[in-house]
Amino acid sequence: MKKVLRTFLMFAMLGVILTSCSKQKSSSSSQGALSSNAAERVYVAPGEYDEYYGFFSGGFSGQLSVYGLPSGRLFKVIPVFSQDPESAYGYSEESKPMLMTSHGFIPWDDSHHPDISQTEGELDGRWIFINGNNTPRIARIDLQDFSTAEIIEIPNSAGNHSSSFVTENTEYVVAGTRFSVPIPQRDMPIKDYKGNFKGSLSFISVDKTSGNMDLAFQIMMPGFNYDLAHPGRGKSHGWFFFTTYNTEEAHSLLEVNASQNDKDFIAAINWKKAEEYIKAGKGKKQAVKYAHNRHNTETHTATSTIKDEVLILDASELPGLVYLLPTPKSPHGCDVDPSGEYIIGNGKLSANLTVHSFTKMLKAIEDKKFDGESYGIPILKFDDVLAGVVEQPGLGPLHTEFDGKGNAYTTFFISSEVVKWKIGTWKIIDRKPTYYSVGHLMIPGGNSRNPDGKYLVAMNKITKDRYLPVGPDMNHSAQLYDITGDKMELLLDFPTVGEPHYAAAIKADKIMSKSRQIYKLSENKHAYVAKSPNDAKVVRDGKNVHVYMTMIRSHFTPDNIEGIKVGDKVFFHVTNLEQDFDVPHGISMLGANTTELLVSPGKTETFVWEPKEVGVWPFYCTDFCSALHQEMQGYARVSPANSNIGLSWSLDDE
Q1: Which residues have C-beta within 8 Å of that of residue 590, sequence separation ≥ 6?
Q2: Are 587 and 597 in contact (CB under 8 A)?
């Protein structure tokens, strides 16, 4: 069996190469086949707006990128799990706590799956959530100003992959572990994996008004790998579905040893039942350690708090909490159609797409149509939950999205294509090549009750020969298809930041109307704010020196500072007196071991400078702000450590 699987995998990889090569040869003819007005249909004239915001995960960049659709223009890169020298996120004293974990300061992660907040199954454009895969975390980005507002670390987890997907009223964001581990962690032989390692599925509650998150509870699961997830919709609201692989519980050479079983599972989680068990006192508190980081919009300062316990529900002990739906084979994507009736399992090593019925699932549970159990969790009979099969649609199915018109679209990694098929009949309608090796796809609102079936975006892993060569570390790509007709039509491709695993898109007007335009100084409650040039000052506290500084077009106050000594630790607390959203200012200091600060209107940010030698050192504005931008500068004089020179500063007194 192992030899057969090795052969299959070898041919699969050969298929990727051959597909790539054949499509390279035919690329000129396929480009010529594009509709002659494709460029017109993605063109957004100067001064006009794109129809959609597209939010693309940054993968190994740890960021979230914002593109306009259909133009493919990059508008912003939002730093989430990584330091950003442009905005000083992760460098300023106010933002550093956002990157704290129980393991210390970690300014990197692997961000995979963004999901937009919803109300009654409709995208509402308030927040977007994204996961950190490596050091398990979930982040919330506030879409009023496109900034990271909160990050919560996930204990009892490793490889936080099946996240961050939200329920249809944003009651919960989920975080499912990809790699099972000993829970609680302990020293044990890896060969004893089977039966001893566990998976965890975390449910993070979201406050309906503020968006503030809290780790509500975790469900302990068997030691499988939990890959992707999707919430129930409509009739299946109250359920969450997770794909699993490695039900073999292998611990070595998983490409073979985790591919033995003909079927793995989709785990159906009844989170309404979980709430009942918690109310009945069935949860157990467990000692853990995890960081919860939150940015305060009034003080403009983040805090990091270490939490020490979590509420646990054990799936093997609580009847009705979890059921297992057999699904061929090594399923990756787990997707639910807008009605909530159909649950699609994309088995990477399966020749077919498997579609389960939620109605049949409930009936099978009621009639106890079980095919045994796994660690106390009932396994439903495959035929009793099966709705239908899409026969031999392609090679290497990964993900499915929906257009709201009764059609589904699935990506096939090995055959490099998107396939359109009809829900209910399971018949293939159309297929289009992608360039090359497509992973996720996205339809605006495709993860909601009401998809907007105008465009489809395919996210491709290989861009060989698609763009001008820039060396081996090539950008990945996104390709935009028009899906309004019976046949899909490729309109555009554009390079992306990092490796986008998934994306989410929403009509632009749902966010633009909420976009914050004015940042009032009167609302600034930072501990070191200076709300006018008259508040500017320099204060010594032993070896610490605090500079209360203001900036406005085109002047710093103070702009000349003397009395700083070698060995001092100088805190520059800089307040931008502008209040209109599009007038940030920057500041950078020669010799400061940090990035520049980009200070948004109405806000205060801090950087630290520890001068090592005497001299006169300049600072200046780094963000072009006016015709006199070059004149926006100042000096700091540093004297010997034993100097008797007292602090002095200029307030336009020359």
Answers
A1: 617, 618, 619
A2: yes
C-alpha gyration radius of the chain:
27
Beta bridge partners of 79: 63
Q: Are 347 and 410 in contact (CB under 8 A)?
A: no
Tell the residue number behind the tokens 């006016």, with chain if given: 626
Asked if 435 and 23 touch (Cβ cutoff 8 Å), the reply is: yes
Residue 492 clears pLDDT 70, i.e. is over it: yes
In this prediction, residues 411-415 reach a mean pLDDT of 95
Instruction: Give me the pLDDT at residue 464, please.
Output: 87
Please report, rounded to a whole number, the percentage of residues in the chain having pLDDT higher than 90. Answer: 86
Say if residues 116 and 123 touch (Cβ distance below 8 Å): yes
Average pLDDT over residues 418-435: 97
Q: Is the pLDDT of residue 394 over 90?
A: yes
Beta strands in 300-427 (DSSP E): 301-314, 322-327, 331-336, 342-347, 353-357, 370-374, 377-380, 386-390, 397-402, 407-412, 417-422
Q: Helices H, strands E: what count in the chain?
A: 7, 46
CA dist 174 and 165 (Å) reads 6
Rounded to whole angstroms, how far apart are CA atoms 386 and 326? 9
Which pLDDT belongs to residue 66? 98
Q: What is the dihedral of CA 64, 69, 70, 72, to 10 degrees?
A: -30
Give the Cα separation of 585 and 554 in Å (integer). Answer: 9
pLDDT of residue 651: 77
CA 613 vs CA 35, 563, 569, 636: distances in Å:
65, 13, 13, 12
C-alpha 492/C-alpha 343 separation (Å) is: 30
Entry field: residues in the chain? 654
Q: Scanning the structure block, which residue is given the tokens 């090995």? A: 414
Alpha-carbon gap, residue 37 to 649, rounded angstroms: 63
Which pLDDT does position 652 carry in this prediction? 65
Taking a C-beta distance cutoff of 8 angstroms, is the pair 497, 80 a contact? no
Integer Cα distance of 426 and 428 in angstroms: 7
Please give the average per-residue pLDDT across 111-125, as a whole number: 97
Tokens 């693309």 found at: 56
Give the whole-angstrom CA distance, residue 116 versus residue 129.
Answer: 6
Give me the residues paired with residue 482 across strands: 455, 489
Judged against a pLDDT cut of 60, whether residue 609 lies above it is answered with: yes
The phi-psi region of residue 575 (left if phi > 0; otherwise alpha if psi is between -120 and 50; otherwise beta) is beta
For every residue of 245-262, DSSP letters joined together read E-TT---S-HHHHTS-SS
Residue 379 CA, distance from chain mean position: 32
Q: Are 630 and 651 in contact (CB under 8 A)?
A: no
pLDDT in tens, 554-566: 999 999 999 999 9
- Tokens 């004293």 found at: 93
User: Interior CA angle at 269 toward 263 and 272, to 5°?
Assistant: 165
pLDDT digits (tens, 9 = 90+) for 249-270: 999 999 999 999 999 999 999 9
Assign 654 a pLDDT band (cuts: 50, 70, 90).
low
Tell me how far CA of residue 344 lies from CA of 266, 352, 458, in angstroms.
9, 11, 18
Would you tell me how many other CB atoms lie within 10 Å of the CB of residue 340?
21
Written as one string, the DSSP assignment of 464-493 is TTTS----SS---EEEEEE-SSSS-EEEEE
Residue 182 has pLDDT above 60, yes or no: yes
Which of 588, 575, 592 is CA-nearest to residue 537? 575
Looking only at the bridges linking them, the beta strands covering 544-552 and 569-576 are parallel
Residue 148 pLDDT exceeds 90? yes
In 232-388, alpha helices (H): 254-257, 271-279, 358-366, 382-385
